[in-house]
Amino acid sequence: MKTTNIKHVAHLIELCVNHGISKVVISPGSRNAPLIIGFDAHPEMEVFTVHDERSAAFFALGLSEATGEPVAITCTSGSAPINYGPAISEAYYRSIPLLVLTADRPVEWVDHGDGQTIRQRHLFQNFIKADFELPEVQKNDLLELSDSIVNEALNVLFQFPRGPVHINIPLSEPLYGIEDVIHEPILTKQIKEENSLSIQEIESLYQEWDGAVKKMILIGQMAPEELSKLALSPFLADPSTAILVENCSNVHDFNSICHCIDRTLAMLKEDELDHFSPDLLITIGGAVISKKIKTFLRKYKPKMHWRIGTYHFEEDTYRALTKSIPCHPNDFFKLWTDRDLNPQSTFGNKWKQRDFMAEESHHDFLSETPFSDLKVFEFLVETIPEKANLHMANSSVVRYAQLFNPSSDIHYYANRGVSGIDGSTSTALGIAVNTPNRLNLLITGDTSFFYDSNALWNAYLPSNLRIVVINNGGGGIFNIIDGSSTADQNQLFVAPFEADVQSICQAFNVHYLFMDSFKNADQCLQDFYTIPADNRPVLLEIDTRQIQSEKLLKSYFERIRQDAKG
Question: Across residues 199-227, what is the average pLDDT?
Answer without folding.
Answer: 95
